[in-house]
Amino acid sequence: MHFQWTSLALVAAAALQATTSQALPTNMISCLQAIKGKSYLITPSSSNYTKESLTENYLFNYKPQAIFHPATNNDVSAAIKCASAANVAIAPRSGGHSFEGYSAGGQDGSLIIDLNQFNQFSIDKKTNIATIGGGNRLGPTYAKLWANGQYLIPAGTCPTVGIGGHALGGGVGMTSRKYGVLSDNIVSMTVVDPSGAIKTASATENTDLYWALRGAGGGSFGVVTEFRIQAYKPPSKVTSMTLDFPLSKYSTILDAYAAFGATASEDLMAEMNLDTSGNMQVQVVYLGSKADANKAVAPLLKATGKPKSSDIREGKWIDAAVRFAWMQNSDLANPKAGDSNYAKGRSLVYRQALNKKEKDIIYKYLTAPPKGISAAYLIVDLWGGKINRPASESAFVHHGAVIGIEFVTEWGDAGTKPGKKACGPCQTWSLNFYKEMLAAYTKGQPIQAYQNYIDKDLPNSMDAYYGKALPRLKTIKKSVDPNNVFRFPQSIPLN
Ligand SMILES: Cc1cc2nc3c(=O)[nH]c(=O)nc-3n(C[C@H](O)[C@H](O)[C@H](O)COP(=O)(O)OP(=O)(O)OC[C@H]3O[C@@H](n4cnc5c(N)ncnc54)[C@H](O)[C@@H]3O)c2cc1C
Ligand SMILES: *[C@@H]1O[C@H](CO)[C@@H](O)[C@H](O)[C@H]1NC(C)=O
Fold first, then answer.
1. Which of the ligands is closest to the CA of residue 345?
2. Backbone angles phi, psi at 331, to 5 degrees
3. Of 5, 32, 125, 294, which has the highest C-beta tally within 10 A?
4. Looking at ligand 2, which atom is closest to the CA of residue 51?
5. 416 C-alpha to center of ligand 1: Å?
6. Residue 382 and residue 173 in contact, taking contact as beta carbons nearer than 8 Å
7. What Gene3D superfamilies does this protein map onto (predicted)?
């Protein structure tokens, strides 16, 4: 697709006349160039523009108008005003892991506001509240929390995911059943809103934003530059396990797993991986000793039967975090995740165990993978526990779920060109699998899906992601972003 530079400039000029009387330059680029200090700007003529435009997922190769790297809240504010005056869509970027490439705009022609310079970190040892800049990634955040008093925050396993998108869309990981999802642990945020105003959102200030950002905050309501998050001290011994079962026992094991959550210890979190190699692996983190961990999984094993193999390790919390980060190195501070690849991820959230049809569809697809995949698997997270008891209401609506499933299909060798190699059979397999799962979803239950696994193929996705929160989200959107400056293909709509 060609970059329509001239026409964008004309649109910008028209939008400026129509919407503002402020003396901002009509050209967004020159407006951004006027922002001084430690910020920097990447434009299509910069030598590393292509590299800067890429997302973590090589499926996408969107062409933003520019990528701006602010250094201060005032820089963010000024950039929002520049883009807004030119009616250019704004996409904040933290870790760049959006499944649909939305931090690159999800379409051509956006302004990316990349928070890589917002990597500040501190922790208050009296309140155990961590202050975390919006550009930090999870691995480095875990490393900093550990180095500053052996703390943790409940969040995901992938070390290169950014705190920004992750915390604003929920955030589920290996201590969620003990401490809840990450968004429910946000105490307050600094947000630069769509008008460019710098605000604090908390339980007592800008409460509408505080409510909306926690769950529906990714890209729709402004740029969160800093999070204040409740941190915790894990016990001195933490146990991690992998338990391997054969896929042929899928029905018994899926039933046992879903039932287990209701009575399982909240010190235990589990995630199950089912893949096309015929394996079902249950991964467990238990906040306590190996002896106690074994007791905690005993009810599960009673229902499933003995695993064919297991690997149980007692260590510190940070050892478990490193283990389940699946890095090429083992350095959370500088994580080396797998090389960028092509992936399609989707999700469904369930309020009850899978029905027979659903289990059979999973087995059918996993035993007949398409040609060309490098990996295809399901991650089944065990929900419940503290996830169901948030301290306050927010736009995260999946409390009360039993399991959350992520469907992942990956293909393409590392190093292939972005946007070039689209394995047709892989994508068709992924979509057909998902369509069958949607059709089998228990009748009378509104479909729920996890917004951090955002997917443009999901019909009525706004309802599935936000459920009963949607009407209020639209009202807040209309009030804080009436011109819809923070827009991408699945942003919160005005109406
Ligand atoms: C390999 C991989 C592993 C994952 N593992 C887990 C997991 O274990 N648990 C889990 O819950 N999820 C997991 N996820 C999903 C992850 O939580 C989401 O993809 C999340 O949105 C990524 O955040 P990000 O900042 O890296 O992405 P980005 O692409 O930077 O952002 C995602 C969205 O949020 C917006 N956004 C980002 N930062 C801000 C900000 N500061 N202010 C306002 N809007 C912002 C972006 O515009 C975009 O729309 C995983 C994803 C991947 C690709
Ligand atoms: C692109 O260039 C800028 C300015 O020289 C630099 O600061 C930035 O790190 C580069 N980005 C990448 C992804 O290499």
1. 1
2. -110, 100
3. 32
4. 13
5. 23
6. no
7. 3.30.465.10, 3.40.462.20
- The residue contributing the CA closest to ligand 1 atom 48 is 103
Residue identifier of the C-alpha nearest atom 14 of ligand 2: 48
- Of 385, 348, 325, give the one whose Cα is nearest residue 184: 385
131 with 197, same domain: the answer is yes
Q: What is the distance between the terminal CA atoms of the chain, rounded to a whole angstrom?
A: 30
Count of domains for the chain: 2
Residues 180, 151 share a domain:
yes
Quick check: CB of 52 below 6 Å from ligand 2?
A: yes
Do 75 and 148 have their domain in common? no
- Spatial separation of the C-alpha atoms in residues 89 and 100, rounded to whole Å: 16
The answer on pLDDT for 390 being more than 80 is yes
Closest-CA residue, ligand 1 atom 17, reads 166
State the pTM of this model.
0.94
Q: What is the pLDDT of residues 39-57, one digit of tens each?
A: 999 999 999 999 999 888 8
Average pLDDT over residues 238-256: 97
CATH of the domain at 201: 3.30.465.10
For ligand 1, mutation pick of 119, 136, 166 (most atoms within 8 Å of CB): 166
